Every structure is written in structure tokens, then in C-alpha cells.
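Model the whole thing, not chain by chain.
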Amino acid sequence: MQIELNVLLFELALTFYFIAAIIGIIGLFKGIKSTSRIIVILTVIGFLFHSANIAARYIKGGHIPITNLHEASSFLSWCIVILFFVLEYKYKIGLLGSFIMPIVLIFMLSSSMLPREINTSLNPVLKSYWLGIHTTIALVGYAAFAMAFGIGIMYLLQEGYVKSKHLHGLFKRLPSLQTLDEINYRLISVGFAFLTLAIITGAIWANTAWGSPLQGDPKEIWSLVTWLIYALVFHLRLSVGWRGKKASIVSIVGFILVIFTFFGVNLILKGLHAFV
Amino acid sequence: MNILAIGLNHTTASIDIREKAAFDGSKLGEAIEILKTSPLIKESLILSTCNRVEIYAIVKDLDSGIENIKKFLSDFHKVPREPLDNTLYEYSNRKALKHIFRVASSLDSMIVGEPQILGQMKDAFDFALKRKSTSVILNKLMKKTISVAKRVRTETKVGESAVSISFAAVELAKKIFDNLATETVMLIGAGEMAELAARHLINNGVKNVLVTNRTYQRAEELAREFSGRTVEFDKFLYELIHTDIVICSTGAPNYVILKEHMHKVMKDRKNRPMFIIDISVPRNIDPQINDIDNIYLYDIDDLQGVISINIQERNKEAEKAERIVDEEVEAILKWHASLSAVPTIVALRYKAETIRKEELEKIHRKLGHLKEEEIKSIESLTSSIINKLIHWPIAALKSEVEDKDTMVDIVRRAFNLDTDRDSKPGNYSQSDDPGSESASAERPASKGEMDKNDNKEKH
């Protein structure tokens, strides 16, 4: 049996991300100076294979390859990696890769365990330009939340060191609390904006496809719950200054909700979004 | 040729002796000139800081060199030999090298890893260069010393973490705030340590400074010094809303900032983080304030705790640094051994012979088959040219001259002997020159002499 090109590309991407994540985790325990560079290089190589994989699937399927959970999860990882490059370039946080690449790895591994067929006979409802717009927007938003999750963990760690006055471990290598809080805030803003857009585009699409913006689909409901939580956090931040530790905890909890909306709803509660 | 390091430091001499033995300002030039005139001392350099006074010298004979320098120190500073000698340590050759490397790498400092010593070492070297009191050996040695110190700094974390209260405060502030330049610091009270901490914060970018004190005049003085603004003492609580870093050290016997104050302040500043340093004893800030979100309160004991961990870390790193120093001592000893004339002569002959053979081979290939006698005459012709050419440098190397090290150094550089693989000691045996035998016989002897001299160290 011949291995398909896109499968090979996917496995290559996964391998490089895997090595990057492992080096990242080792780097947390052993202070190796050049780890962040190595992680970035490995991730860039993985990313190139990954991009080629997505392109190959696009060409073969003739539509944006976000039509099943395997593809969605893979695309989400791809978006997180792009955000990782952006943050790495902009803020040069040494340990970022150590916290982000394991998250990428988890999504890639989940993706690799899900059925990989390329959808050649799309459900007629999905044959719409809304597919590309709605799913891409939603996944970019999720990627921002994933990133905020990683940054939130970094914040809680650093906060723990400073508050407890035990300045050991990663204290020296983690960035300042304010930097982390600032990045967290920006990521959540981006994520929130995209989530809002995803809900709006989803409603428009549903309206054109089924004649009503709300279908009572579990994914819709959970997305709205997530949206409300992030909206509340926003409000609290601006009005009474919910920042720092609280904001980080919320970004962690929020992301767990996002994961549930993403996997749980599709796998446990079947609905319109479960295309598999 | 012998390297000497003689001196005293904070562990061997009390402050009053260190003061007397220091070479400050104009004295330094005068002292160097005196050392230059000594017939026993070929090269010299003086390092004088508040914690140590050391003289590094290249001397002809160790015993007389040591005596000469000790006498000079005693005479120059008009301190009797008896108390002075007890505070002096002396190291020679291998141990001297190691000592100099350790001093520059801040492994011998009162606070291990403190960065000033390297700068002081560079200054001492620059001064010696200007006064031309150093030459081949010390120049090379000092350059090496500086590079060793830099290597220690980059390869170990010996100078990384803060080991003083004020530096620890800055280190923490940098891990709380993104950019110190946009933060405001308030000094409550005016203790010496608080002042120092404020100064370090300002050096690290803080621009807005508020000062408050019970006696207004003192507050004004400090505000002027830091180009800050004064705040009346009974109103400072209102200003806390705009303050990001508080340094508190008043003489008050009770808390001047209470938890309920800070609850209100944090609400008003929308929970923007605050870093509060309480250096007063007894404490002036309710320790429970640390429980409030986004406030980080450190008292003097907390900061001491941070420092003591850092000191342990430095000591661990110092072990790594010691290994680097040992490695570098071996490297420079190798170079030093190469400076004696004999290996240089051997290397020179070997190089000439190699060139001759290479060229011969080329001409063989060009001319094709040659008769036996033709080959012989070319061989003897080339040999005699080469031997005549290198005769003069070799004769110069063999002669007994005053500054032989310079001579050796020049020859090695002119003929590019150091970068050449040909000059490696391992290759000596390949040379069919009879001189090489005596060379390999002499080499270990000179090395042994060096090792023997190490035991001269008394301290």
C-alpha cells in the first residue's frame, strides 16, 4: 500500500513538533541556554511540513481542509504554531516554546488518532464559502485561547515564586509578571474578537442554510457559554481591574471550556457540528 | 623566567594595613617607575583596589624577586617589614597564574562574582602598558587573564544573581514590572539602605521618584538628589495610588501602612501590581498585606533569604569557574613552555626543512626524471640556502641576551611558528636534525623547574 503524501507530511510535522516539545520540557528542568533556539528551529521545520500537508489536503479535497475533527485539530495546531512564532518574535520570551509546544503536540496527537479521510463528498450544507470563513475564524480564536492558556500557566508559576518569596526554579528564566499579564490580555482580546466573529458568521451561515440563526446545536450553546465567560472577564478587567492571577486562572478555565466545546461536543454530544 | 604574584587582600590584612598599602592616584605612577628601575624585575604590574593590593612581576630569580618586591612595598609605604610580611601572600609560576586568573574572575573576591574587579584589573593593565612596565610575558598573561574572566562570566552563572539587598530589590522589581522606566517609586523615610535601593532602581530605569519623610527638610534633600518630588508625610497614603514600588524605612515603632489602607489603594488603582519593600526594623508595613492580590511585600528578612539562596548558587557556580581557571592555567603554561629558545629553534628548523622538502617535490614533478647526482646537488644546494638563512635567527636565539623572551616571541611570530602544526612538540622527532634530541631532553627539565618553584608559595 502506498502512503499518501499528505499523511507522510503530517507524520513529519508531528515528529518535529514532538521533538521540539520534548526538548522544551527537558529545558524546563535543565537550564540549557540554547533550548529556545533549537525549539524554534525544529518547530519551523515541522511547520513547513505541516503547511504542505494542509495544502496537499486542500488540493486533493478541493475545499478548505477543516471538515472533520482530524483536520480541525491539525489546523488549530497550525494556528497555535503561527501565534507562537509571532510572540517569540515580538516578546522573545525564553521559555515560551517549553509551554506552548506541548499544547501543540497534544492537538497534533489527538488529530493523528482521529480518522483522516479527505472528505470528497461534502455534505451539501458545507459546500459554501462560509465553511472556510467560519471555521478559520473560530480556530484562530481557539488558537489565541490556547496561547493564553500557556501564558496563564507561566504567569501562575512566576506569581507563585514572587508571592511565596522562594525565588528558585524557573524564576530567573520566566519573564516579568506584567509582561505575561499584558500578553495574556492581548491574546484573550484577539480570541474574544474571533470567537464573536465566529458566532456571528455561524449564525449567518445557519440562517442561509436552515433559515434560522440558532439551531440549538450543543456546540452553539457551549460556544455561547464560553463567549459569556470571556465577556465577563473583559468587563471585570476594565471595570475593577481583574488582572494578573485572576485573569490567568480564567484564561486557563476558559480554555478547558474551549477544548470541551471543540472535542467533547463533537465526540460526546453529537450535533450539527459533528461532521465525522 | 619566573612569574610572581605578591600581595595582600581582605582576608589577610585588616583595613588599616590595606589603606597603608594602597597605591592611589599619583602614588601608582611613582611606584611603577621604581619597579621599572629594579634590575631584578623584568616586568611588573600593580593592582590596587580597596580590598587588595597585588604586584605581578616577571623576575629573573624567585627568591631575590620576592625579597625585592617585599622590600619595595615596605619602603614605599613606610610600613615596617614585620607586620607587613605577615599579611603578604606570594605565589609563583603555576600558582601565580592561577591566582591572577582567580582574582580577575572574581573567585577571590569578598563577594564571589562581583563584577568590578575585572574592570580594576583592566585599568591596572592599561596603566602598566602606558608606563611600559610590562612586556611580552605580562602582556600576554594579562590579555589571557581578561579573556579567562570573560569566559568565566559567560560560561558560569557566578555573577548572575543579586547578592545585596538593593540588587535583590531591583532583580525582583524586574520580574514584577515590564519596564521600570514607566514605574513610580516612593521612598518612605530615609534610611541609608533605602536610599541605596532607590539609587539602584533609578540606575535601572525608574524615572519618577516620590520622597516622603517625617522631617520635611530631609525629604527635600533626597528629592533633589533623585530629581523627584516630595510628598507630605501625613498625605503619602493618597499618593500610593500612583506608586508602583514602595521602599519603606522609617524609624516608626509601629505599622505606618495597614492592610485596610492597601485594600482601598488596590481598588483605586484597579489592581495594578505593587512591589513594597519594607527595610525598617521593626517593620513599618503590616506583613499581612502580602496576602492581597497583586501586592508583593518583601521585608528585610525576605530579601536576606533571597540573597542567601543566591550566594549558595554563586558558590556552586564558582566550582565550575575553578575548573575553567585550571584549564586555562594549563593552556598558558603550554604557551609559556614554548617561549623557551630550544623548542623555538627546533620548530624553526623543522619548518624550514618542511618547506625545503615540499619545494623539492614540486621541482621533481616539474623536471621529471633526474640523474642521481643532479638530485644530490639540488639537495645540497637547497639545504645550504636554508641553513644559511636560518643561521642568524638561530644564533640570536642561542645567544645570551637580556630580553630573550621578546626575541623568542618575535622569531615565533615572524616565522609564524605558533599557528603551524609543524611546531607542535609531538612532531619534533620527525625532524632528522640532530638538534632535536637535545631539545626533547631539555624540555622536561625546564618544565620540572617550574613545578619545583611552585612549592615556594608559603601562604
